[in-house]
Amino acid sequence: MRAVGVVAKARLDRAASHLAQIASWLEQRKLTPVFDPETAALATSAGTIAQFAVVDKDELPRHVDMIVVLGGDGTLLDTAGRIAKAGSDIPILGVNFGSLGFLTEVTLPEIFTSLESAVTGTAQTEERMMLHVTVHAGGRCLADRIVLNDVVVTQGALSRIIELSVLVDGESMMRVKADGLIIASPTGTTAYNLSAGGPIVHPQVDGLTITPIAPHTLTNRPVVVPGSSEIRIQPLIHQDQSEVFATFDGQALMPLKGDHIVAVRRAEKRLRLIRASSRGYFQVLREKLKWGEI
User: Fold this and answer.
1) Per residue in 50-66, pLDDT tens?
2) Which of 34, 129, 139, 237 is the most exposed place for a label (fewest CB within 10 A)?
3) CATH number of 3-128+270-289
């Protein structure tokens, strides 16, 4: 390992004072800290005088061997998408600046212990399934993205219930009237999927979860399908229904028309996530979901 990327949540002033400490810690171990422009500006705002190597966020994964994310799960999701877009397989170490996160589970007191294990190669690293989503219409590809958590097809702010056609591996699964539909990876089942009443799926399970959002018919229930499946969603837009959107990890919003087909399948690349050695997956669930201890 020669270079480590450092990405902080935008305008996270509480992280500013930690950036110089992390950079100094890395340099003492003959590792080059590399910041994105916003993170470098945040460090400078804290009165840090040191000169940092600065690389654009989209290019950062090509210049480093690991990325440390300071913020919350949303910042990590954004970074994961950029790593996938760059065709890289470098790991992410997520440091949470709020309550314990499902993805950014390293706490502030654990930063340097976790960094030490990461740079020496002794850290526990998990590979997480990612989703490859494309949007097609009339033989043209309108969007091509890789996401970690979920793909959501949903109504606009002023729309009525929407109707969607859902196929799994070419076989009709259902036509559902609902506020929307969530396609989640195992990692994403603890995000929007959980709020919509979907199941929690362990991140090592090879499956995709299909969860209707507030379905009109209560017999439309969440379904887990094999990870090898391809799921296709097409909005059935009527005259009184004008707004349907697709969102990708909550990071982008794309309007859909009646001839648009959203296809979701397991991505070839997986995300490498560095875990905190002090707690396991079920401990994170207990702490986040307030489950009673045994």
Assistant:
1) 567 999 999 999 999 99
2) 139
3) 3.40.50.10330
